[in-house]
Amino acid sequence: MSTKNQIKIIISAEEAGERLDLAISGLYPEISRSRLQKEIKNGNILVNSKPAKPSQILKTDDEILVSLEESPKIEILPENIPIEVLYEDESCAVVYKPKNMLTHPTSKETAGTLVNALLYRFDSLSVCNGDFRPGIVHRLDRNTSGLLLIAKNNPSYENLKAQMQARTITKKYYAVVGGVFDTDSGTINANIGRHPSKPEKMAVTPDGKPAVTHYKVLERFKGFSLLDITLETGRTHQIRVHMAHIGHPIVNDAFYGGPKLPVKTTEQVLQAYSLTFVSPNDGIERTITINFDDDIIKVLNYLRNTK
Prior knowledge:
Blueprint: E1 4-10, H1 20-27, H2 33-41, E2 45-47, E3 63-69, E4 84-88, E5 92-97, H3 114-121, E6 145-151, H4 154-165, E7 170-178, E8 185-189, E9 192-194, E10 202-204, E11 212-221, E12 224-231, H5 238-245, E13 270-278, E14 285-289, H6 294-304
Parallel strand pairs: 6-13
Antiparallel strand pairs: 1-3, 2-3, 4-5, 5-6, 7-12, 7-13, 8-11, 9-10, 11-12, 13-14
Helix pairs in contact: 1-2
């Protein structure tokens, strides 16, 4: 006899503006989105005690009641995948995620992710973020390389998450984008939400979540620019969406219309190169930085030789 697991969720201001099916899929990465959409249509996921559509946009303080049959548990196993640890103390660590690696497992991919590597490398990780995301405080897209903060225990996770929400953690990126800028710096302030007709994509939308991106031009080329980007907020695909929105999409980012160069890279030429945070262990602020990854080096060499 099957049993149902019932969970009540209150939507926060940060979560508001998301589609119902996508919001729930973030909580249940082991369940496919198509199944979640079916569960919503069958009345097993309610919004404010009423049936809803998968596309319903959630509001602050909406109450979501999820009643799902318990699925067979998917075990996420440690894997001996070498990872570079740039900083470590008793509470947290900063690690390097290479390109072509998922930050955490999904219902379709449960091996070869950063989480599998973390489970092997560290004796303990926070579990606040669910079975599929032990230790994960924030994430990077599969084909974006760079630095990630890892929480080793639950209090550290809560501390680092609070820093994220207070916007006191500074995340900086390098990006090579199409086009040449007239000014040396700028700010993009445009709400980001799900694309109205392509839910797998994000877009600038009036009813999206507030998103702010600052950029500085480091180097100009013929038809291209190297940027130093600082995130004030951390929305899904924020840099990729914002740069495409202002007509400067990231090089080789096929998903958001980036220009192609005759240089082979693992999709978008984007790297999270710097993290500034306060360690929960000792309260000291630290900045961890890394140099250009191989893709950026290849692209810059090509552009510098074709000026």
